[in-house]
## 1
Amino acid sequence: LTYRRLPALWINPHPCLEAFWRKSFQGRRLSFSDVASELEHHGKLDTATDALSLIVVQDCAALDSLAAAELARVLSPQGEVVLIPGAHGEALDHWAQQLSEHGLTQSGQALYASDTVCYDTRRLLVFRPDSTTH
């Protein structure tokens, strides 16, 4: 997915990855409060349906059903949602449940530790659209 400037959304971006993100992807970087505000004021994210190849959610906090539905709506049928746990790691089960209710299935886990991710050793959870519902 990298080095092709794919359309993507990064929720709760970490400064360590800012340069990598700008070089590798095109798309918005939003805080959790930015996402909540867009959903509250407009009922959806300012992104077309099926438009994003990648959605990264850093330091996942609790996810409500509306936010999960929006992530599923804007993710392309071949896209991926990557959850990176942080201080809210206990919310991962909740995220997985919410995403699965909107047609996204956990397809794996990854563990990367490199200079690009500042040697962060947290596991990443990867979700993809279920081909029967998306």
Note: The mean pLDDT is 82.
## 2
Amino acid sequence: MSAGEDVLGDGSAGRVARGGPSGRELWVTAGGLLVVTVAVLIAEIVAAHGTWVLALTTAFVLCAPGWAIAAYARAVTASFRWSVGIAVGIAIGIVLAQGMVLLHFWHPRAALAGLALVTLAPLVHHIWKGLAGNGKEVTA
């Protein structure tokens, strides 16, 4: 079996062989995570309460920061990118919480808002990169 062979029969052989995600896949996913990130930022600014805030912030911490970093990797499959992204998201959350404990600065709302602000930059970059490539193969 050669590296460029279309094993799946769906025309994805070149993309899979090079290991780069399609531009459309990146900017659509980044766009969805950007919506979640902005929603978390707004919820933290207005100090919203409720089970929906818990679900939203959990989804944000698990997915958005880690995926924004993992999407820069030349992952072969989306499942690998998501697995690494979720692991990195969990690690970022743990490091952030440990830093707050160590510094005796326990302000989870401020930390979450700061994390959301920092996460915006790579997500916007993925969207811009995907739109600039008009959904073509992203190789860098």
Note: Confidence is low (pLDDT under 50) at residues 14-19.
## 3
Amino acid sequence: MVSVGCEAFRVSVCPYVLQEKWVNVIFAFVVLCLGGCRSVEHDATASVVSSPSVLAQRVNAIDDPIARMAMLDTMLSEDPAVAVEMCRHLNGHDERSQCFQVAHRPHLWVDRYMRPLASRPRPDAHTPSFSQVQPEPCPDCRTPFAVIRAAGDHAKRGDARMAAGICKGLSDTRWSDECMFHAAEQCVHDLRSPGYADAVGLCTASASFSSACLMHIHTFPQMQSPLTTEKSDWEPVIQYAETIRAFWSERDPGFGDLAEGQLWSVTLVNAYFQSRDISGEPLDFLPASAVPHVHSAVALRLATDGMFEGMDLATASASLDTALERRVGTTRRQRPKMIPLDPASIWDTSSDKVGMIPYLNTGLRQHHSEPTTDRLLALLEAVARRPRLDRAWIPQARAHPSEAVQQTAQQLHRLRDPHDPSRGRRSPSQIDRGRRSHR
């Protein structure tokens, strides 16, 4: 079993540092690992108010890797932006990489981190199970990160059982679960469809992170999406979508639809934000299940570029139609634009998902089988994530004959009207300033 930490306090303190956000315990642990007898209250105050570079100096002075992660854990809970900036000032490439790895994997430090769409599915007896796998030693692994890398290497080579065994060698459950999570991602790295069943099994074994893990294997199996016009580059994505659909068809078809929708939603948004030209080429070669996600991606890209500002709803809708009907033949890759990812969505993701499809990273949106109506729904969702929206759009959409359009307009009204008692928790400007990603 791998266990690292301050020797004298390994049993009584380290498990709490890694599993809970008990700030007093964390700071006591950090102070003790620093070898000092200074006041816990003094150190707690200093950690919050110090600049990123000063905090990095303090972290650089800590030899114990668990103590370093404990301090980062606290900082991320207090102020993620400061923590990420601190990572840039750490000594050594490995230390900076590990810091960024934790900072950009929020399930490691956000309490009760949940992905609403990745509800627990119903695997069957034919789904690989790693619950009975025995721990495997990793003699050269001195830190949890080394164990995680070793397990990921085995998973990438197709040996998921050995990967699971290495992960079970970690004594702390949070790092063991993260190890299973990472191994699952490596099973389907670069859309390797044969590893999908093992990835699902490893996600199930990741326990506390299983929901986030299931989302990741459907949304981030490859780092760079294809260009929108290159049909041949989309073949691996199409095959991966078919693998997802086939795997869940007799196990849990409803979850399979959501999983495939997540793949198309994220991959197409990434593709459109990385392609210089905006056109409807993917409509010509992607399956029908991807079509509403093409609508979403194009509408969001146009809204992000400010194309709808100053337009009424009808003019903006016509502009979206024109973009989707356009064909450019080929396009070039550009530096990815900032993509707004709103974890909360404008919808209650815990409610009934009938008539809803995945949107962006973890959100939902209304879907309609009639293409023109579905494009309008995609347009309304896109502008909901921009700080400026012509208020005339809302009554125009509420007058639309489609019930789905009316419901989306009502959600926008609740977000925009501060006097509406049913208003959502966050304003559109807060949504637009929310979590963003280049992925």
Note: DSSP finds 20 helices and four strands in the chain.
## 4
Amino acid sequence: MSLSNRKFPSGIDEALVMLGLPMSEIARRVGLSIEVWEEDGLGTARGCWIPIQDGMFVLLRELDHAREHLGATGPVVWVDSDDAIAVGFDDLLHTTLDALSLSLEDVNTIPDDKEAWLAEIKAYAAVKR
């Protein structure tokens, strides 16, 4: 599924977690087709859409700039704000990890306060609608 041909239905994407494995390793394990493109000012990016359940998709996006200069260990998992609100953090995370055949040990960065993360998404979504 082409990155350029798909958008999140709500129009609001939110970072769920950062994975601890490089995109190339995740793609190799799961057999993903990765797209590569250039992002202005950030260099090479890699990513793909992953179907997780019942019409829900997540976007994996890895930036070379973030790996080289900001200590990123792998791609960030981006989710639709409506999915985050409907499903909640933990269910969305576990469904995503299951779809990628990964475990919690493969996650590098998780929000400290999941309830605050969800409350921010709800507030932002309410303002944007």
Note: Residues 114-128 form the longest helix (15 residues).
